[in-house]
UniProtKB/TrEMBL annotation:
UniProt source species: Alpinimonas psychrophila
Molecular function via GO: ABC-type quaternary ammonium compound transporting activity; ATP binding; ATP hydrolysis activity
Family per record: Belongs to the ABC transporter superfamily.
Any one annotated GO CC term: membrane
Domain ABC transporter: 41-278
Keywords of this entry: ATP-binding, Nucleotide-binding, Repeat, Transport
NCBIfam families the UniProt entry points to: proV
Enzyme Commission no: 7.6.2.9
GO biological process: glycine betaine transport
Stretch list, region Disordered: 1-31
Name of the molecule in the record: ABC-type quaternary amine transporter
Length: 367
């Protein structure tokens, strides 16, 4: 479950330079320059058996996550996603097995030190209602003994990072923000001390579909800049293919059914379990990973002058939606300057999809 009883202070994070011993006060530009990149996380035969349970919830789970990778754990309810994630910051202790971060066994790290390396974002957000947004974000830097000036600087930087205007939001209280805005603050707070690792447990799960999509897009853009190592738990396979560099599809007791890129999983599900999990919308989901720009397109003249249009940087999923809503006829493709540059038809889309799947299957076969 994604319930978290721990107070937000466990979502502590660290800046290696930022210790209570008193590091020099960096400027905002230097903070950005020093930003920690992700760490390598290795699970080696990690198991967890809760007392009173007949079977272990997590059973000999082994996985290597490289620095800066965005890994999504997806699987049915109760398969052990959250338990596995919470063992990384030692909210839950494994029964056996080893987890290392950058080569260090996490049991050899002081718990507080460990948690300062790890940002933690959960669905319930856990903002303190009696603290302003700025105070909420400042919790961990304060614990780390940062100067007032440095904290204030970091709060502004983080609010800008998550696209909330500091002058407008810093002094508000959580209840004065929408659910999506609160979730952005949750992300900002987890990033406060620049941790190399982020654990995210269904962070966007409680938001409506439109807000959720927006938060996903924003977070992807953010990750392309900050390059943390992320473990993200979700029930939602669509969310997994949109966000993950790689997806871990889990079966009962965290059995890894497939660990691969979204495109490979869609093109070549490892077994029936995965195929079933992906569901019948497989090809449609695949289209969301392909771009109009990389597709063989028709001439501008193939589309009617008043046809609908799609941007050259859109996905084939968007293009298909536009084609279908335009009665199935070819539509215009617009370049960066919004000028017609080509057309796209259902046949162009189908051809690209077929070629892509064939190429991936061949690649799989060669491996
Ligand atoms: N504190 C606990 N004590 C006993 N059993 C637990 C405890 N926490 C979880 N479990 C059990 O361990 C298994 C894995 O739970 P976990 O929350 O890790 O699954 P999950 O995949 O994250 O599920 P969900 O998607 O529903 O959040 C489940 O069978 C659950 O009932």
């Amino acid at each position: 479950m994604s319930n978290v009883s721990s107070p937000p202070t466990v979502s502590a994070q660290s800046n290696p330079q930022a210790t209570a011993e008193g590091a020099p006060v960096p400027t905002r530009a230097s903070l950005r320059k020093e930003a920690s990149v992700g760490a390598r996380i290795v699970f080696d035969k990690v198991s967890k058996k809760y007392s009173g349970q007949a079977e272990s919830a997590v059973n000999e789970f082994s996985l290597v996550i490289e620095p800066g990778e965005f890994i999504v754990f997806v699987g049915p309810s109760g398969c052990g996603k959250t338990t596995t994630m919470k063992m990384v910051n030692r909210i839950i202790e494994p029964t056996s097995g080893i987890i290392t971060i950058d080569g260090t066994d996490i049991r050899d790290l002081d718990e507080n030190k460990l948690r300062r390396k790890i940002g933690y974002v959960i669905q319930q957000i856990g903002l303190f209602p009696h603290m302003t947004i700025a105070e909420n974000i400042a919790i961990v830097p304060k614990l780390l003994g940062w100067s007032k000036e440095r904290i204030a600087d970091r709060v502004v930087e983080l609010l800008e990072l998550v696209e909330l205007d500091p002058t407008e939001y810093a002094k508000r209280y959580p209840k004065e923000l929408s659910g999506g805005q609160q979730q952005r603050v949750g992300v900002a707070r987890a990033l406060a001390a620049d941790p190399p690792v982020m654990l995210m447990d269904e962070p966007f799960g409680a938001t409506d579909p439109i807000t959720r999509e927006k938060l996903q897009d924003e977070f992807l853009a953010l990750q392309s800049r900050i390059k943390k190592t992320i473990i993200f738990v979700t029930h939602d396979f669509e969310e997994a293919i949109k966000l993950g560099d790689k997806i871990v599809i889990l079966g009962p007791r965290t059995n890894i059914e497939q660990f691969d890129t979204p495109a490979h999983i869609l093109a070549a599900p490892a077994n029936d379990y995965v195929a079933e999990f992906i569901g019948s919308g497989l090809n449609l989901k695949h289209l969301a990973l392909l771009e109009v720009a990389d597709t063989e397109l028709g001439p501008v003249g193939a589309a009617a002058k008043d046809a609908a249009s799609v941007g050259i940087d859109a996905t084939l999923r968007d293009a298909l939606d536009a084609v279908i809503s335009g009665d199935g006829l070819p539509i215009l493709v617009l370049d960066e300057n919004e000028q017609p540059t080509a057309s796209i038809s259902i046949e162009d889309i189908a051809k690209r999809l077929g070629a892509e799947i064939e190429a991936m299957e061949t690649e799989e076969g060669v491996k």
